[in-house]
Amino acid sequence: MQALAEAAMFRDRHDAAEQLAHRLASLKEQRPLILAIPRGGVPMGRLIADALEGELDVVLVRKLGAPSNPEYAIGAVGEEERVQLEPTAAHYDERQIAREIETQQALLADRRRRYTPVRAPIDPAGRVVVVVDDGSATGATMAMALETLKHRRPARLIAALGAAPPETVVRLEALADEVVCLEAPASFGAVGQFFADFGQVSDDEVVRLLGTEHG
């Protein structure tokens, strides 16, 4: 536990979100659309949206876990049946990958029904859009989110996250107009190592945060 405490850069997601909001303060007059990646990115997105006087919604993406190690991303899925596989996916059985894709797409459909049951997703066209997550190891889910949103023609697309390895930041810079990443150390184990408190975020909390009106 001592090693984890020494590695932590942020007290919690609230701390990281405050730092990101400070870095993004110039957007305040542009009423940005903050699109959080559930579930960990949503508490951060709520704070950033309030600080920048913007709108909050979610962009629904899920990583595809390797059959032998669900925590290791071999790709990602988005809504509208979008699928993106990493080169490492070639090392795994296609049938297992197909089952994982089906599982994660079903989860996305369920989340959309739960998170925004009475309205459509906010249209990002022509908006300054900030995609928020607590961090990313491979960049698979953030990359999927950015690729999905680019097709919807935002005026400007920004990726904002607490921590990622340098190679992931470079990957995201090719997809976004700007990447704001608070910590990008060469020695990167997992996103949770950068947070003293990295508790799970529940679906109920996501629903509550999305239903909170600004002000």
TL;DR?
The protein is α/β, with parallel strands linked by helices and 215 residues long.
Instruction: Return residue spans where pLDDT drops below 50 for at least 5 consecutive residues.
Output: 1-6
Q: Give helix and strand order, one letter per element, not per position.
A: HHEHEEEEHEHEHEH
Strand numbers in spatial order across the main sheet: 2-1-6-7-8
What is the gyration radius calculated from CA atoms? 16 Å
The total count of strands amounts to 8
The number of helices is 7
The portion of residues forming beta strands comes to 15-25%
Structural class: alpha/beta
Mean residue pLDDT: 93
State the shape. globular
Q: Note the main sheet.
A: 5 strands, parallel
Helical amount among residues, as a percent range?
25-40%
State the distance separating the first and last CA atoms: 39 Å
GO molecular function, one term: transferase activity
InterPro entries: PRTase-like, PRTase_dom
Keywords: Transferase
Protein name: Phosphoribosyl transferase
What features would you describe in this structure?
About 40% of the residues are buried. The longest helix has 22 residues, at about 95-115. This protein has about 220 residues and is an alpha/beta fold. The strands form 2 sheets. A 5-stranded parallel sheet has the order 2-1-6-7-8, sandwiched between helices. The protein has a 3-stranded antiparallel sheet with strand order 3-4-5. α2 (about 15-25) runs parallel beside α3 (about 40-50). It starts with a helix and ends in a 5-residue tail after the last helix. It has 7 helices and 8 strands.
